[in-house]
Design a protein that fits this description.
Blueprint (H helix, E strand, L loop, with lengths): L16 H9 L10 H13 L10 E7 L16 H10 L4 H9 L2 E8 L11 E2 L17 H19 L5 E7 L3 H13 L15 H18 L7 H8 L2 H15 L3 E4 L2 H13 L7 E3 L8 H8 L15 H19 L3 H4 L8
Parallel strand pairs: 1-2, 1-4, 2-3, 4-5, 5-6
Helix pairs in contact: 1-2, 2-12, 4-12, 5-8, 5-9, 6-8, 6-10, 8-10, 9-10, 10-11
């Protein structure tokens, strides 16, 4: 067992900054006219430390886990067994993430971080189960701090193994009935934002059920009494899921190896909040793929000063935002590597006058 999980991230060097911008600004276009695509190309070239960046073997990792509170039925209109049913749907290539990642040219890797179901060992997934779901955080911590660190280390090990095979782009997605509630509690505590600004529909909570969800989570937050000054891993252990903890470790491992980190929606951003609290340098490696319709995502992005690529009114999770945004990531790199310069195309550039 791992008693403490720590991961250092070397800040991205800035020695190539001016050269990257010079290359972009001499393409056959007015400087800055491709907007976010240019800033994205700069980010990728900078973190890879080259004027000719490349994208290799892109993957969407879908971390799946169950939450003890889901058994109560107080925060989720769908029953807990939907988690394992959807995992089987992923493996059968019938889910949105399968369809979208296929179009984007990304491989889907499903990770059993802690689903309340015993999967057959020969299924084509990563078997990293920490348990049959977490405990109900209305009654105590979702997991022990040791279990939390162990889960983060497992996530890091999974990503390290993937990177050793040549991947340098990983999208982080998830599946877990009840995990928007965990994400809301994590976000509210770490960002010091009222739960009423963080708790949204999740899998479809509306009206009286949404009010019940909010009240249940407010009671849980009061019960534990954690504040914004708490260590992020303690907040994660108290309210998180095994899938969220493994995402945290995976994100930190990816950034430590200078891999591009694609962050999906609300739950993935909550995992990123924890990772960012532990190692702020991770921000240089992250691309926030879309602005989720889940209520808390707007303020979570604002807290991180993050500017997402897409506004598609999605709130599905599964890593679908990563798949939707990845073609833009490819385009940005193509602009830097393949677009002609004024000199090479024989086009007159902007006058210096």
């Amino acid at each position: 067992m791992t008693d403490k999980f720590q991961k250092s991230i070397v800040p991205v060097p800035t020695d190539l900054d001016s050269q990257i911008w010079d290359k972009l600004n001499h393409k056959t276009k007015p400087p800055g006219s491709l907007g976010k695509l240019e800033r994205l190309a700069f980010q990728i070239a900078r973190l890879q430390g080259t004027l000719t960046p490349s994208l290799k073997e892109p993957i969407v990792m879908v971390f799946a886990g169950d939450h003890g509170i889901a058994k109560s039925g107080l925060v989720n209109p769908y029953p807990q067994e939907v988690t394992y049913q959807m995992v089987m749907n992923f493996l059968g290539k019938g889910a949105a993430i399968n369809t979208m990642s296929g179009v984007a040219g990304m491989q889907v890797v499903v990770v059993d971080a802690g689903v309340n179901h015993n999967f057959e060992p020969d299924l084509p997934m990563v078997h990293a189960k920490m348990g049959l779901g977490t405990a109900d955080y209305r009654l105590g911590p979702a997991m022990s701090l040791v279990a939390c660190h162990t889960a983060m280390q497992k996530g890091a090990d999974i990503v390290a193994d993937t990177l050793s095979k040549g991947t340098n782009v990983i999208g982080f997605g998830e599946m877990g009935i009840g995990n928007t509630s965990s994400a809301s509690l994590i976000m509210s505590t770490l960002c010091n934002i009222p739960l009423s600004d963080c708790v949204g529909k999740g899998t479809g909570a509306t009206g009286d059920f949404l009010a019940q969800k909010l009240k249940t989570l407010q009671n849980a937050q009061k019960f534990h009494g954690l504040t914004a000054g708490e260590d992020a891993d303690q907040v994660l252990a108290t309210f998180g899921g095994f899938e969220i903890a493994q995402m945290v470790g995976g994100m930190l491992e990816a950034a430590s190896k200078r891999c591009l980190v694609l962050v999906d929606g609300f739950i993935s951003t909550a995992a990123f909040l924890v990772a960012h609290s532990m190692a702020p340098e991770i921000g240089d490696f992250a691309v926030f793929t879309h602005h989720s319709e889940e209520l808390g995502h707007t303020k979570a992005l604002a807290f991180l000063k993050a500017n997402p690529l897409l506004e598609l009114q999605m709130r599905l999770g599964e890593g679908t935002g990563c798949a939707a945004a990845y073609p833009l990531v490819r385009m940005s790199v193509s602009v830097l590597n393949e677009m002609a310069s004024f000199d090479s195309a024989g086009v007159t550039g902007k006058s210096d006058e």
